[in-house]
Amino acid sequence: QVQLVESGGGLVQPGGSLTLSCAVSGSIRSIYDMGWYRQAPGKQRELVAVISNGGSTNYPGSVKGRFTISRNNYNNSLYLQMNNLKPEDTAVYYCKVGYIASSVRYNYWGQGTRVTVSS
After folding, report:
1. Nearest in space to 27 (alpha carbons), one of 79, 97, 95
2. What are the backbone angles phi and psi of residue 99, rounded to the nearest 5°?
3. Predicted confidence band at 10 (pLDDT cuts at 50, 70, 90)?
4. What pLDDT digit, counting tens, does each position of 65-100 carry?
5. In angstroms, rounded to a whole number, what is the distance separating the alpha carbons of residues 24 and 59?
6. How far apart are CA 53 and CA 17, in angstroms?
7. Which of 107, 108, 117, 97 is nearest to 13 (CA)?
8. Per-residue pLDDT at 74
9. Which of 87, 94, 105, 113 has its CA at 20 to 30 Å from residue 41's CA atom?
10. 54 pLDDT higher than 90
11. How far apart are CA 56 and CA 115, in angstroms?
12. Which residues make Cβ contacts (< 8 Å) with residue 54, sequence separation at least 6?
């Protein structure tokens, strides 16, 4: 059974840093990407960062230059280094693993870790 478990969230002051981790257990075949998403209260879940199997990364403008996604291909762990955090980064952050089965794309999700940026 596949499980994704996020950790590293917490309370941080504006301008501070946090590193989120996502531990993936279980076997997942045909992974095509891994990513971080977040959902703030009253808002839709949004992409924060994604990394492909080839190591290509993509970030929305709101976090580009501040957040860095990385991946351990040996054990499929995923990380998100967040610097210069802003109050608008406050959200629950979710880890996602995208995989293909029978030519259809599916996603596994973690349960989320809360990040609060406040003075």
Report:
1. 97
2. -140, 165
3. very high
4. 999 999 998 888 999 999 999 999 999 999 999 999
5. 22
6. 26
7. 117
8. 85
9. 105
10. no
11. 25
12. none
Confidence of residue 1 (pLDDT cuts 50, 70, 90): confident
82, 18 in Cβ contact below 8 A? yes
Contact 22, 38 (CB under 8 A): no
Average pLDDT over the chain, rounded to whole? 95
Q: What are the b/e assignments for 42-75, b being 16+ CB within 10 Å? A: eeeeeebbbbeeeeebebeeebeeebbbebeeee
Beta bridge partners, 77, equal 72
> 21 near 7, Cβ under 8 Å?
yes
**DSSP SS3 for 87:** helix
pLDDT greater than 90 at residue 53: no
β-pairing, 3-7 vs 18-25, is: antiparallel
